[in-house]
């Protein structure tokens, strides 16, 4: 009896580690000290920061991982995870510094590990974020064959002076929506149930309503808004930003609203990608349930003071970025919900 | 059909979040800005740091979690995780700043979540480390009922000037072992197989060889060495430290050894807790397999220059800390293994 017979293969783990090391080293930025393989990752903070505030977030990919397993495509979930994390700290104006992952699988498969880490490394590189460490755990009996869980941790930095307070948001501020590319990483438990159980589809099934195979459609990447927004953030043009993840707009926008402020959002002011209307029809989902579960086509909401909106919109147009004016902040009774929808969804 | 029917209950998640917030806020140190609930955790770096290097690590608890599930005791695994992370960055001399966790379960159980987070918060508090965020994910169909996965992420800081280089280790340095309290968080896949499958025991079974119920014995906490070592680290008395985790002494000690240095370790110079000899007997495990899989009673190895060992040993004795001189560093052919064992295990 040895460790390999108990389901843990240390030589396969070593193989996987070699590949991770090679991929990760390509993401190294100036701050990284040493390599991968020490007990911890090292990152020297640049001297340019006067009063650095570290901004950190932990996220998972959720049951979107089941779509990766079902399709055998493991190259995009790593990017989903990194982008989710980058967007989270972006809402506080933070520049990403470094990222670590946690990957747990039932049986170590160096090829799957490589695909996942390749996706993470690519997304880290695009965001200027170094992949400096992580834990790859083989946990026999915990995960079904071919399945794994994946979580990520990011650290970024922002000057204390430029940290926005949530009460920076005030009546009259405009709400601009930046489009999502699909479900991003939320609502998958419901989506999978509807698509694979109720409708009985397979990942390879072509769905005319979305003009795509359902597996590929559900694997669309979680978009990263950092490259697009970093100049805007540096200029201090925004009152706040909300990353629309689990809980949808009503679950996330209130996180940046002060007491007594309400976001009035007009449905129909932005296009809702067909995957959402398809899921709505499949499950006969009510409007409120849809809005609480999915991002409904909105990946990020920018709260913009009236005096800045013209400059911001000009800048976004110049970069050919799509955006939609979806509503406004107004004063309200603090006992009322902080997000009010008017109009109807465009389907 | 709604999200709750798909197995995701947002109100239970909210309940769990309330409890997490309360527990986490008790760990807040001076650097923490704001509370839990924003898109990210905020930590202001103290101005005392001249050239701060951030030291980070990600870890999991591994299949020790199965013991928690089997015994229904979820209050210690959180501490195991925090302590594992704190020890990892301690090896680089880093002071812990903040911690985030990732907790994924099939069905959200606020009571289990509370027990886990209570354990994390307690360990964070002891280490002076703030629990500033995390992700609690409900992933139906991913985890068996009552099961969960748990990972953690820590960030600490060290002055660039006091960062030890691995080639600080030199021939003649002494190796001091600090005792572990048991398996810590490694070797559980093998241990579980031997105990529950081969021997057919239940968590409640009393095992005379270890004078304990096997479940309780296997749940013994992963010890945190930071409170004990922080003064020693600040004094710069050590050449290096190795945290003995997955891969045992031969898998971890080489991480801090320069090329051409070999650690010669004499077996029998430290007491091996009875759980290890019990597992060895159950599985007829060979010496090398044991040493590669388990910590064998050594949780941390201190590499001490000859000129400091007297001062260090006096200090450890004064604090009534147990330690064992287990070997020495010598020069060797760079093609030879970096750890050589002599003598035999004391059983």
- Terminal residue distance of chain A: 61 Å
- The CATH homologous superfamily of the largest domain in chain A is termed PurM-like C-terminal domain
CATH architecture of the largest domain in chain A: Alpha-Beta Complex
Structural class of chain A comes to alpha+beta
Determine and state the CATH class of the largest domain in chain A. Answer: Alpha Beta
Give the count of helical stretches of chain A.
11
Q: Sheet bearing the most strands of chain A, described?
A: 6 strands, mixed
- List the uncertain runs of chain A: none
Strands of the widest sheet of chain A, in order across it, are 10-12-7-13-11-14
Largest chain-chain contact? A-B, 81 and 81 residues
Give me the Rg of chain A, rounded: 21 Å
Integer count of domains of chain A = 2
What's the multimeric state? homodimer
Summarize the amount of helix of chain A as a percent range.
Answer: 25-40%
The helix/strand order of chain A is HEEEHHEHEEEHEEHHEHEHHEHEE
The overall pLDDT average of chain A reads 93
- Here the CATH topology of the largest domain in chain A equals Phosphoribosyl-aminoimidazole Synthetase, Chain A, domain 2
- Based on Cα principal axes, name the global outline of chain A: globular
Strand segment tally of chain A: 14
Strand portion of chain A: 15-25%
